[in-house]
Amino acid sequence: MADKQLSEGKSIGALTIDVDCSDALKGLKAVQREARGATAALKELDDVKKHTCPECKTITLEIEAWWSDKETPHEVKWCTHCGWSNATQT
After folding, report:
1. Residue 47 in contact with residue 41, Cβ under 8 Å?
2. Is the pTM of this model over 0.85?
3. CA nearest neighbour of 61 among 90, 85, 87
4. What are the beta bridge partners of residue 77?
């Protein structure tokens, strides 16, 4: 008889569930902290790669960028260690 009442959509009572999610939230916050750290490390690595000289492989590359007009960016790179220089249009 109870099965018939449920299948017709009638309520037979209330159910209360008490769930402790504090450990799960602590874990998620730890994952978020690690993700932020990894993102910062990737940004730093990208910055290091951007300033690494392709000739002598030292982190001494200087970069100067400018726009000759509204649509044409230019970039000059030079190494303060070995003197390598390259003017590129990006």
Report:
1. no
2. no
3. 85
4. 63, 86
